[in-house]
Every structure is written in C-alpha cells, then in structure tokens.
Amino acid sequence: MSSESPREDAESGRAAEEFASYLERIEFGEELDFDSFCASRPELTPELRALHTHWRAVRRVLDRLGGATSVARRVEALSGHGVGPPVFREGESRREDPPTLLAKLKEHAAGFGRYRLKGEVGRGGMGVVLRVWDDDLRRNLAMKVVLGKVEAAPGGDTPPVDSRTLGRFLEEAQVTGQLDHPNIVPVHELGLVPDGRAYFTMKLVKGRDLKRIYDLARRGAEGWSLTRALGVLLKVCEAMSYAHSKGVVHRDLKPSSVMVGRFGEVYVMDWGLARILGEEDRKDIRIRPAAPSTEIRALRDRGADANPDSPLYTMDGDVVGTPAYMSPEQASGQIDRIGPPTDVYAVGAMLYELLTGRMPYVTPGARVHNYAILQRAQEGPPAPVAEIAPHAPSEVAAICEKAMRREIGDRYASMEALAEDLRAWLEGRVVRAYESGPIAEFRKWVGRNRAVASTLAALIVVIAASGFLVAWRESVRVVQANERETRIQRLLDERLFAEALDQVDMLFPVRAATVPAMESWRRRVGTLVQRLPVYRAELAELERRLLEEGAGTVRIAPDEHPGHAELLALEAKRADMAPFIQGYEEQFAAGEMEVASWLGILELEVAYLEAAADDLRGRATDHRVWEIRDPERAADHARLAELVARGEALTEPEDGARAQIERRIARAAGLRAETIDAHRQSWDHARRDIRANASYGGLELPEQVGLVPIAADPESGLWEFLHVLSGEMPERGADGRLVVAPETGIVLVLLPGGTFRMGRDAGDDSEGDLEVRGLEGPAHELELAPFFLAKYELTQAQWLRATGRNPSEHFPGQFKSEQMVSQTNPVETVNWDETDEMLARWGLLLPTEAQWEYGARGGTATIVWSGALDSILDLANHADATFAAAFPRSGSTGDDGYALHAPVDALAPNPFGLHHVLGNVREWCRDWYYADYQGVTHRPGDGAFLSGGAAIPVSYRTKTYRGGGFKDKKAFLRVTYRGNRFPNSTDDDQGLRPSLELQFEGGGLDR
Questions:
Q1: What are phi and psi of 941, to 5 degrees?
Q2: Where is average pLDDT lowest: 39-48, 625-634, 794-803, 923-932?
Q3: Measured distance CA(330)–CA(319) in Å, rounded
Q4: DSSP for 600-643?
Q5: CA angle at 100 for the pair 98 and 106, rounded to the nearest 5°
Q6: Which pLDDT value is given to residue 261?
Q7: Structural domain boundaries of the chain?
Q8: For residues 865 and 964, what is the distance between their CA atoms, to the nearest angstrom?
Q9: What mean pLDDT, rounded, does the chain reach?
Q10: Which of 416, 429, 250, 425 is nearest to 343 (CA)?
Q11: What's the pLDDT band for 465 if we cut at 50, 70, 90?
Q12: Is 476 exposed, middle or buried (0-12, 13-18, 19+ CB in 10 A)?
C-alpha cells in the first residue's frame, strides 16, 4: 500500500512525462538547456533534477556500450517514462513469479540471438540469474536480468522496471565490468531483452559457496582443512584489495558471496550494493526498521525468525541477508563512515565463523531473528574467539579480532594489511596482529629453517663462550623475574576475581544509599577485567600445547556440567505435567470450562520450566572436560580455567555480574522518580488520609521511596502500598478486594503503632492449655511503633523473581483434593538464612515476634483473631477434614477445603486485612528463640528481643517461627503459638511474611 498521497502520485507522473519529452527533444537534435527547462516548470524542479541525475548515471553506461539513443527510446517506450525516481512502495511485491518470468523469457528466446535459456540459477531483490548457452562462443554463461518490483499485469504483460532499480542494475554491471581481477567474476556483455529489460552476461561459476567450504574444513572432508580454507580467504582479501584500489567498496561481504570452484578457483560475487567512492551513492543501504510486533509474531508463527540467515531489506528494498557480518557503523546506519574498513570487518567476521563454527552473535540452534542480531551488532562485540574455540590458533584468532575491532581506526589499515597477516601465518612468518619484534622474527625463522638453525646454534654456543654469556644470563634473569611477577599477579587476580563475585550479593538493596558502593565496585572490576583477555589467551595457548604434545585430551560432556542434575529435575517436572496438560486440554475442548484455570497454571509453569531448561542446556552444550596426565600441569590448567570462568561471570554481557550492577545502579538512580514523583497525587492523598485517620493517631507519614500507595482497604480502613521492586500493581476484583496474580508485587499494610498484650499465660483460656507448657508466657504489655507488614505470605512467583529459582516442594501444577498448586501459593521449603538474604535484596525484613503477633491479632485480645478457637476452623488452612482425606493421619474438626497450602489470598483476612496469618504455612520471624518471656526485654519501636528468657546454649540457638501451617492441628492456630528451628533447616510448610520499618527522615528504600 502506497504511503504517498494521490497528489504526490500525480506530480511524480507528470514529472516523468515532462522528462520524457525533454529526452525526446534533445535526442532529435534540439538544443535545450536543462536549467531553463526546469525553470519553466518550478513546481516540478526537484523531481526533474532527480530524474536527470539518474539518467546521467545510466547514460554513462550505455554510452560505453554504444547505441545509447536506441536503448533510451526502447526503455522509455516500454517503461512509460524516462529514468526517474523509484516507484516501489511499501507492501508491493519485490519480484515476479519465477515460472511466469521463465515462460516469458522463453517466448522471447529468439530475440536473444546468440543465447539459449537453460534454466534459472538464482534470484535476488533486483534481478534473476539465468543459465544460458552462447551459440557463438559455444559456452555456458550466467545472465542476470533486471526484475520489476510490481506484480505482473492481469493480461500477462511484463511488469515495468522502476527507474531507480534499472539505474542501479546498470551501475552493478558497470562496477563489476571495470574490476578486472582473477577472483572477481568478469562481465561480458550488457543488453536488453525483447521486452526492454536490461541484462548482462558473465562467467558461469560452478562450485560451492564459502559456508559449505567451512563445513568441509571443520569435518576435514574432501581434503579441506583450516589452512586450505584460510587460503580461500586470502584470495578474497586480494580481490577486495584490488577493488578498494579502484575505489569500489562491496558493503555486503559474507560467506554466501564467495564461490569456490572444483579446481580451487575463488570468486567474490554479489556486487549489487557496491559503491564507488567519491561518487554520489544512489543506494540507501540503511536497514529497513523492524515490522510491528504483530508482523513479527506472524513471522514467528511461520518459523521465519528461526533462521538467522533469513534476509533483511535496505530502505531501497534490496536483500541484505544476515547482519552478522556487518560492521558496527553499517549496522547502526552510519552511511557516511562506510568504506574499505567496512569490508575489512566483514572478512574478519567470515574468519570468525571459520574459527568458531558459528556466525558472530548467533548461538548454534538458537531461534534468533535477524533484527535481534542487528541490535547485538550495534551494542557490542560478539563473544571472543578464544571463549568459543579455545583451540583455534592464537595468531589467527588475533587476526580475526583485529579485523573486527569496533573502532575503524583499530582495524587493519587496509585489506592488503589483513591479507599480509593471513599470508604470514600460512607461510610461518610473524603475524603482526599477534606479536612483533626481532625475537618473534627469529623464532619464526628457526621454524622455517631448522637445518640452518642447527648449524647457527652451534656457532652461537662458541660465541656465547667468548663474551655473550653474561648478556644471556641477564636476559634469563629478566625472563624469570617477569614470570614470577606474572604468577604473583595471577594469584592475586584469582582472589580479586572471587571477591568481586562474592560482593555482588552484598550490594543490596537497590537504593540510593547503596549506589556509591556499587559504583566503587564497578570501577574496581573495570580495571580488574582488563587482564581477562591475557588470561584467555594464556589458557588457549596452554590447551593448544597440551593437545599438540599429546599431554592432554578434551571431550565435550554436557552431562557432566554442574547444572546437569538441575536440568534433569526440570525435565522430570515437565514430563510429569504433560499428561495433565493433555487431559485438561481435552476437557476444555469438550466444553468443561472449570478446568481453564488449572490449564493456565500448568501452561505458565511449563513456560518457566522450559525457559530454565533451555538456559541450562545452552550453558552445558559446550561443556568441556580435560584429562591431563601431568598433575602439575593439570592443576595449573584448572586454576587458569577457573580464573577465566570467574572473569566471564563478571563480564557476560546480559547476565554477568557487571551487567547486574549496572542495572541496579540505573534502577536505584530512578527509584525516587519512579515511586514518588510519578505518583505525586497518590502520595498527597495517602498522607492526608492517614493524618486524618483515627486508627493512625495523627501519624505524619513521610514519603517512602520504593513504595507506591494503593488505597485504604475497604474493610480494615488501613492503607496499603505496593513494593515496586518485587512486582506489579495488583488489580481489584468485582468484590473490591485485591487479586493476587503471579506478577503481583508485595503488598504492604501500614499498621498503626500501639500497645498490646503479648503472650499468654496458662489458665488464661481453657482452650489449648495443654499446648502452652509455659513457652508463651508470661504475658506482658508491649508498645510498638507503626510499621509495614505484608498483606500476604510471600508467593512462589515472587521468590522466583528475586532468586531465579523456586525451592517449594509443592510447586505449581501439583494436584491434591480437587485443588492445584499455583504460582500464587506461598513459597515454602526455605530456611531462615536464605530467607533473610533474599529479603535484603529488596530492602525488606522478617518481622520480629512482637510485630508478627501484633499483626496476627489484628487489634483483638482473643486466642485467635476470630474469637474462640473453633471459630477459626473454616478460616485458617490447617490439618482439617480435607487434609485427613488426602493424607493418612487424623485431622481437626472443620474443613477449610485445602489439603496442601492454599493461594495466599484464598481465605478471609483478619481485622487488619492480613491473609493466612494463622495456618497455611508457618512464618519465620527475625528473633533468636527464647524458651519463654521470663525477664525478656524488648527494643523500643520494633519489639525485638534484647535479653532474657530461658538460657539456651549458643550451639543450639534456633530461630522462631509463628502461625502454624496446613499440617498443624487446630491448637497450633492460636496467635501466641511459638515454634523454633535451626536457621539452616526447613520443611514443606515453612514460609515467610515480609515486613518493612517505617522511615521518618527522607527514608524508604533510598536511604
């Protein structure tokens, strides 16, 4: 569909007609000044000048071939106008149907005179390449015929060729025809087929493209090897060096652009995007922007994005192919910077593929769309050769890396310089990209002239005895000193790399106060990893020598990767879910709508499992296991490999430690704007309402950076806030209550300060006396400051977002008593230590025992918040009738409907709006456990234990949990029940509920 208006179409058509009349008049001998011709038509002047520019380019080619006037008239008569601006518009076809084209050309075969059509070789965006027989010279040739960019007319007429395509087609013929080099396909003739379209003939190249040759070299098939393949690349460099000397830049070099014949002939092909330096560039080779997301999804559905070699298009509509070989300046559309260094980079990228077995930026087997590759090419370099192919020759890897430097000035100064380094390696001479100097030259000379070197060595011994021995000893001393310094530096870096990685988990929470420490870490690591390329090279060299000397072997062993056991567990979970998914899909298809929610839970969990498994497989695919006979060299290899692995963990572009810290710094810097400035009205409203709310006693709430006000709960009247680092804002259901989804963040309830009676004495209530045993008393009055307590227990989805894993024994997809575990069920099987560490990442805390009991009571003074103990039986998830039916043990009276833990918002909240404070999962508290409250003192504000209680030996110190769980009988549901576990122990009913202290001086998460 055209993006031009009808008025613009009309003006373009009129300009074409006027220019055609201008050509006709001058071709019939009229002296007509073009400037005067334009001046008489001022409204068409821009279009006329564009037409004239294109025509001059075509005329230069046609004048060289003779018969320009007749060709011009035939072009004008057949295309309907002179050579003018492009008529190709978005959405129109780029090429004719192949059978239709061949049928038409066969109809006109007699018009070709000396040529007979024998079939089609291939086609691109601008032309089709045919195989023809030359009757005069008795040989096969290739003929390239220009294609129109619009569909054929209904009557079968040949579609018109737009003038820009025609001009550029003729320019390709001119450029290629002027490049007379044995590795560039020669052009023989340019002409017009009977329907008026241009063609040119050239040598028919029979062979295979370079990508196929690479495959043969990697397999050692048909006599191909790395050395022989490098010889092909050397010929490519020589051809491109010649082209550059003529001022021609290719701009689309890639393995498919190079053909290798049966007898070693090498040809550089596909000059359609070439440019002559110093002349106007009539090709807009910037990459056309990606399609809208809906079109990308359609491509994905058809599998079009599965192939990284699928084409991209320029702004002119030309096929570019993969961007994996594009230089940074070309990938980012910096047309004015494109020149010979662009081709140097492309040859380096072709060498990269030969050494690593993969295109730059593309992981074998990965489904990556070309626009994703283009973005990666713009953002940074591909993975180093030494990382992917550690056994590749270090010198050749150095050539590759120099050719692919991101800055133009850092690459080879010319294609000839690149060719010289390749030639040097093939001839056993010094590779300048790798090393230089007299010592390197001498070592290479010895390698090439061993017999002469042996005689020279004897002579050197005599000379050394007469005076050079001192110098030799001094050089040895210097070398030994350097080796000691290198060993010391490596030992130091082993410790520094490890420390840097350990510190990553300490640089929390994400808030303004932590930014200076994160920036300091970033600076230190930036200096530290500058030595990583040295260690990569050392490791690659060590491994190369081990293999050459037969001192070690290596094998690819994915099943020995450290993450293999985790991968098997993920795959087993996925397999367990398969029959359930199939069954629910069949039920849903049969109209059983009630299974829709279960199917959704399973599909979401399967997506997570598959993503996690794919990540592990990707990391394990190339896992290498070395077996080295010499224990000393094996230890050296292990330490150096570990050092490099730590360096990679620091620098990996997406998930490395440095990338993580960069993201944290950026998030912390914008946290105030994100949570306060962007929600100014909500904060003003919340603070006014809290100040006027009698429950809060006139509290002046400061802005809490990191939180966003939601609203006051419609039942409790207490204000609730979203913790933004943990997830998204919850929505409200039809009943006005918040609905917890997998993506929902932590909702914090602002609890008012106040005094309450903590604990319970035996005899306070006849219910549960047998369970008290003095552990819950003596009861005592305690005053707490306002604080935030989570409305819900932490969900499995929230834990997964924070840590990247879900430790829960009862994970999403498990089914029990007509209930399915979902991502919004509470996380469990977490110990106190990992819970404390996880909350610290988000700037949160576990509540103290005092805070937990204050929140659980919800302003009440009874044994449970609902009143008498039995009143809670249907309101708290415990070992009830449903539990007893599912498990071989007795349950309590009552029935809450759940055999396992329930979604965190499943049952009714207490008067403070807190769900499942009693039952569901037991909840860790911050305090160390004291056997009772006798003599206990509390810290003012949060009520944390300071001292007192029954003495417990340090070696037996445990942490407190509260609230009871789904496996507990009803007596454990009382608000005063206390339990304890070692900090490193857990159970499948052990979870947590986060809290946050109220900050009064510009506080919140930006402290």
A1: 100, -70
A2: 39-48
A3: 15
A4: HHHHHHHHHHHHHHHHHHHHHTT-EEEEESSHHHHHHHHHHHHH
A5: 100
A6: 87
A7: 1-85, 90-204, 208-421, 449-552+624-664, 558-622, 671-997
A8: 14
A9: 80
A10: 250
A11: very low
A12: exposed
CA 284 from chain center: how many Å? Answer: 29
With tokens 């279009």, the residue in question is: 47
In angstroms, rounded to a whole number, what is the distance separating the alpha carbons of residues 436 and 755? 80
**Domain at 671-997, CATH class:** alpha beta
Q: Which helix (H) or strand (E) segment is 554 a member of?
A: strand 552-556
For residue 250, the tally of other CB atoms under 10 A from its CB is: 26
Tokens 């909500």 belong to 682
- CATH architecture of the region 208-421: Orthogonal Bundle (1.10)
Say if CB 829 and CB 952 are below 8 A apart: no
Token pair of 124 as six digits: 């691109």
Pairwise CA distance, residues 265 & 355, whole Å: 22
Nearest to 751, CA basis, from 712, 723, 703, 724:
712
The pair of structure tokens assigned to 112 is 């070709």
Interhelix angle 438-448/450-463, nearest 10 degrees: 130
Burial pattern 591-603, b for ≥16 Cβ within 10 A else e, equals eeeebeebbebbe
Q: In angstroms, rounded to a whole number, what is the distance separating the alpha carbons of residues 413 and 415?
A: 7
Digit-coded pLDDT (tens) for 271-317: 888 888 877 676 666 776 654 443 333 333 333 344 444 456 666 55
pLDDT tens track for 751-797:
999 999 999 887 665 554 445 556 888 999 999 999 999 999 999 99
Strand partners, 997: 787
Residue 237 has pLDDT above 90, yes or no: yes
CATH entry, 90-204, from 3.30.950.10, 3.30.200.20, 3.40.50.2300, 3.30.1490.100: 3.30.200.20
- Report the chain's terminal Cα–Cα distance, integer Å: 56
Q: Which pTM does this prediction carry? A: 0.54
Q: How far is CA 339 from the centre of its chain?
A: 30
Mean pLDDT, residues 965-982: 92
Cβ atoms of residues 141 and 204 within 8 Å: yes
Check: CB of residue 742 under 8 Å from CB of residue 824.
yes
For residues 355 and 913, what is the distance between their CA atoms, to the nearest angstrom?
63
Q: Is residue 258 a contact partner of residue 270, using CB atoms and an 8 Å limit? A: no
The pair of structure tokens assigned to 114 is 């000396």
Which DSSP string corresponds to 426-484?
A: HTT---TTT--SHHHHHHHHHHH-HHHHHHHHHHHHHHIIIIIHHHHHHHHHHHHHHHH
Half-sphere CA count of 729, side-chain side, radius 13 A: 12
Q: What is the pLDDT of residue 946?
A: 86
Q: ∠ CA(572), CA(573), CA(578), 5° rounding?
A: 95
Give the sign of the dihedral formed by CA 328, CA 330, CA 335, CA 339: positive
pLDDT tens-digit readout, 501-515: 999 988 999 999 899
- State how far Cα 811 lies from the chain centre: 28
What is the distance between the alpha carbons of residues 127 and 115, in angstroms, rounded to a whole number?
A: 18
Residue 571's region, left for phi above 0, alpha for psi from -120 to 50, else beta, is: alpha
Task: Name the residue type at position 218.
Answer: R
DSSP 8-class letter at 289 = P
Instruction: Supply 360's token pair.
Output: 């730059």
Cβ atoms of 121 and 129 within 8 Å: the answer is: yes
Tell me the C-alpha distance between 276 and 285, whole Å. Answer: 14
